[in-house]
Amino acid sequence: MTPTEPNPSPAAQPLVEYVRTNRATAGYVLAGLSLLLLVGTVLLAREAIRAGSAAEKPADKKLDPLDGELPELPRPADPAAAGRGQSQYHVGWIGALLGALTTGAAAAWLLAAPGAADEAKARSNARVLLLAVGVEVGVSLVVLGGIYFYLWSESLTAWLNEGKARQAQWALIPLLMVVAGAGLVFAAVQPARAEERDNAALRRVVYGANFSLTVLLLGVALVAANVLFALRVPGELDTTESGFYTVADETKAVLRRAPTSVTAYAVVADGGGRAIGDVRQFLLACQDASDGKFVVRTVSPVADKKELARLAGLSPQLDLLLNERRGATGAVLLATGAGPDEKVRAVVPLPEFFSPDGLGFVGEGRMFRELTLLADPVRPVVYFTQGSGELSLDPAAEVADDQKGERLRRFLEKSNLEVRPLPLGGDAPAVPADAAVVVVAGPRVPVPEPGVKALRAYVNTPRADGKKGKLVVLAGAVPGPGGKGVVRTGLEGLLGELGVEVGDKLVYSLVTEDTTVLAGFTQRAVAAGQPIAATMRKAVETFSLPMAREVRAAPGGPPGQVTVLMASVGPTWLEDARLDRRRVPEVIRELRQSEPAREAKQARDVGRALAVVVSEGQTPRAAVVGSAELGSDEAAKESPPDSAPFSFDLLGATIDWARERPSVAAVDLKAKQYQQYKFPDPAAVDTTRLLYLPLGLGLLAVVGLGLGVWVVRRA
């Protein structure tokens, strides 16, 4: 084609020529396409009506007292199911109807209207027809793709954030619709370009379509890039693989809930290398996350001698550190107050920010503990009742491991709690005024009435701060004499007043096939952000409760006060007496084969409530767990001496919730490990790519530029 030739040869536009020379056939093809789109319109409209009816009619389901409370079991999920409801069908049938009308109108014009006698005019009409149909259908696809991308956006989140590859299709299909629609518009415009110089109206349509496509592609690129970055890249970017410079959510919560502002004096040498730089960076990250409650000030031992002397006067520990430990690398002081009232509350030597081998940064855990202590300058006292066979805190007591709580006591004391026994014997026992929480851990005989009376007074009487006492009860299924029944705790009346009811039978599980029950935190507790569930579910989704009984909301209790915290997972049944471990598989076989046996033992596939929490508004009142061995040394047997089992963390989190404090026991701020890079052995390095890859890329760039110049010069 020469530069002066206005139109391409007919052979260059075969589709235009086919429509011009075969009007009837092209009309029938478009009519068939219109009919298919009409069928799709009817089907999608019917699905929209069905979806609306299903939404209005409640689904039939088996009623259960734990409806909405059951633990969320690991199972395939479709996060976009809610978005792909009635709206998607309405959008679909409207789009299909527009396509049917467009193709139907084009078919009617081809079949009914007479063809132009002039060959050039007939060819021009074919181009206009292709342009009109292609642009309308293409634009419809683009709009539909954008709408579906919005409706199914949860699938994109599930795919990118949660790694659910099956959800990718619901994110990619709308994008393919947009690309296909843009491609169709582009293809429809090409035949019309042959007349853009001679037809002003057509030229405007062609240029407008090209401009719209350019804007669309730019918009899609920007939206896709922003969505991907928003979902995959956090607002605060930590480019280290281990998140080395990111402050944990638990630390942020403690910083923001601090009762008073804290000043962190970083007494460090100027420069100082990687270690001091990492301490500074961590302290500044804490300052950014504290909403102004944590302020960092750097003090140089060389340039700020006057300020250093003032701090040493406020803290004998710092003075001792600097004067007697020559070569000390520095320290971080946490102080509260201002001016003459300023007091140093903690001094953390710089070496304590690192593991003994120097390969791990443990400063966040160290600072978390100190900040928590600042929130509780006086150690809270937690009392464990004694005298009714409860968990024994006396290391000299000669009791079995399932009744001994020595390791639990040490664990709680490391979490800044003071643990004391509370005998409830005698005629008039009383709960001390300094009790932050009282724990009744698995009584093996009923608590005597005077003791129950003391606990009732503690739970119901407001203290000096206006709040009532907090109670934690481990109401395990302790078999009665001869293994029959379950021993009463003596607290049934008090728990009933709080809206809690405990079962009188042992719960057995078909999942564990022993005396433990598989349990999990309920969906409602997790969704509501219940602190115990929210904290502990990060560690495990399911766990075992030994010798469990049901704990549920009492009928007619205060509405909204009792929340089921934990429930059984999988099928369970009830027993009046403790089974020999060897008999459990036999009973399970019987339950699987006999419906009467299932009814006799109240077997059920839905969950049973195993633990509840009681609140008065937002204020915790009590927590009741249907298992007593969680805090025993028996539960910690398989854990190393310097670590704690999950059950200890669970009890620690429960006590912290009761005293309205963030959990220290449940937080696991692990050391952030330094990585050492070693250069590879020179003999093992392949230098071929180092030599030829740059040369190849340079040659490719030169050839590409040359081809571009050649194409421009030839056009």
Keywords, please?
715 residues; alpha/beta; Glutaredoxin; Rossmann fold; 4 domains; 9-stranded mixed β-sheet; 4-stranded mixed β-sheet; 21 helices; extended; disordered N terminus
What this model shows, in words?
The protein is of the alpha/beta class and 715 residues long. The protein has helices at residues 14-21, 23-56, 86-112, 119-151, 153-162, 168-192, 200-232, 249-256, 273-289, 305-314, 316-324, 363-375, 406-414, 449-460, 492-497, 523-527, 531-536, 584-593, 595-600, 646-658, 688-714, and strands spanning 262-268, 294-299, 330-336, 343-349, 360-361, 381-386, 418-423, 435-441, 471-474, 500-502, 506-509, 516-521, 542-546, 551-553, 562-568, 572-575, 609-616, 619-625, 672-673. Strand 6, helix 13 and strand 7 form a beta-alpha-beta unit. The protein is extended, with a radius of gyration of 37 Å. The model is unreliable at 1-6, 57-65, 72-84 and 236-242 (pLDDT under 50).
How would you briefly describe this protein structure?
The chain has 715 residues and is α/β, with parallel strands linked by helices. It has 21 helices and 19 strands.
Q: Which CATH class of the largest domain applies here?
A: Alpha Beta
Characterize the overall form: extended
What number of domains?
A: 4
The residue-averaged pLDDT reads: 78
SS content category: alpha/beta
% residues in beta strands = 5-15%
Q: What is the number of E strands?
A: 19
| Tally of DSSP helical segments | 21
Radius of gyration: 37 Å
